Amino acid sequence: MYEEEFQAVHFPVMWQDVLRTVQENIPKSKGLRFLDGTGGEAGHVLKFAEAYPDSEILFLDRDPTMIQRAWSRLGDRKNIKSINCNYSELAQSDLEDLGWRDGFDGILLDLGISTYHILESGRGFSFKGTENFDMRLDTNLNTKQVTAAEIVNTYPSKELERIFYEYGEERWTKKIVERLLERRRTNPIESNNDFSKLVESTIPRKFWPPKTHPATRVYQAIRIEVNQEFQHLKKALVELPKFLKPDGIFQIISFHSLEDRIVKHSLRELVMSNKEFSFIYKKPLLPSEEEMKLNPASRSAKLRAIQRSADTRNKRY
Ligand SMILES: C[S@@+](CC[C@H](N)C(=O)[O-])C[C@H]1O[C@@H](n2cnc3c(N)ncnc32)[C@H](O)[C@@H]1O
Predict the structure, then answer these.
(1) Cα(185) to centroid of ligand 1, in Å?
(2) Closest CA to ligand 1's atom 7
(3) Which of 16, 58, 62 should be mutated for ligand 1, with most atoms under 8 A from CB?
(4) For residue 171, which of 53, 91, 147, 220 sits 20 to 30 Å off, Cα-Cα?
(5) CA distance 215 to 100
(6) For the complex shown, is ipTM > 0.90?
(7) Tell me: the pLDDT tens digits for 256-307?
C-alpha cells in the first residue's frame, strides 16, 4: 500500500515550524540525518523526507501497529529506517548497527498518542463505543505494562487519587475514586464505556467542561500511568541530546501543561549545566490560528527546541 491508498488519520502538528527551525538553524542543507522518536503515521517523517530528499531518517515507535502504518504510507525508501522501541531506550549500539554512529542533525519528539489510537485502535483510548479498557501502546515489546482496566479495578484508593491528581489535575478525584471503589466491589470496569459512564454520573453536569468530555482528565491520567509516559519522557530528555551532532537540534512538541513542564525543566537543566546547549526560542512556539482551525488537535501544542553548539566536534558528554 502506498501513500495514495493509505488513509492517514493523523495530521502532523506544527510541521512547518519544525522544518523552519531546522532550515533557519542548521547551516548545511545536504546530507542531514534525522531521528523522529515518535514516528506515528510518519507525518513528520514524510515532511523531512520531502524537504530534504537526500537525508537519512530513523523513526521509532513503541507501538508496532504504528510502525506498520508508517511503512504502508512510506513504501520502499532506502534512506528511511525504523525501530519498534521506546524513544527512551534508543542506544548507541542501534546507531552503530545502522552505521550512523555520529548521531543526528535533528531529533523530534511529538508527544502523546496518535489520532489513530483514539479513532481506530480499539484499545479504549476513546470515550465513544465499547472497547476493552486497555490503553497500552507497547503491544509486543514484552514490557509488563498493566492495562487501564487493571489500574481502575485493582489499585488502592490512595494510588488512584495520586494518579488522577498528579497526571490529570482532576478536581473531582475524591468523588470519582469513591464511586469507583463502590462499583468495583461487585461489578469491575471492563470497557472504556463502563468507565466514562461512571465519571459522567459522578461529575454534576453543570460542572462538565464546555468543550471536552468530563472524563478527559482521568483518561489522560490513566493513559500516562499505563504507559509510564513521564518516566520515559524524563529519561529521553537526558539521553537523546547525547545523540546530537554539532549544530544538531532537538525539538519537542508537547500537548498539555504537565508534559510541557517536564520538557521545560529538563531542557533548562541541560542548558544551565552544559554550555554546549542553548535554547533556540525563549518561549515555546504555538500553532498558528490557521493550523488550529484546520486541525483542532493542534490547539494545545507547544514546541520547544534546543541546539548543540558547533564547536563540539569529537566531544561526547
Ligand atoms: C502524536 S503521535 C506522532 C505522530 C507523528 N508525528 C505523525 O505525524 O504521524 C505519537 C506517537 O508516538 C508513539 N509514542 C508515544 N510514546 C512513545 C515512546 N515513549 N517511545 C516511542 N514511541 C512513543 C505513539 O505510539 C504514537 O504513535
Answers:
(1) 36
(2) 43
(3) 62
(4) 147
(5) 44
(6) yes
(7) 999 999 999 999 999 999 999 999 999 999 999 999 999 999 999 999 999 9
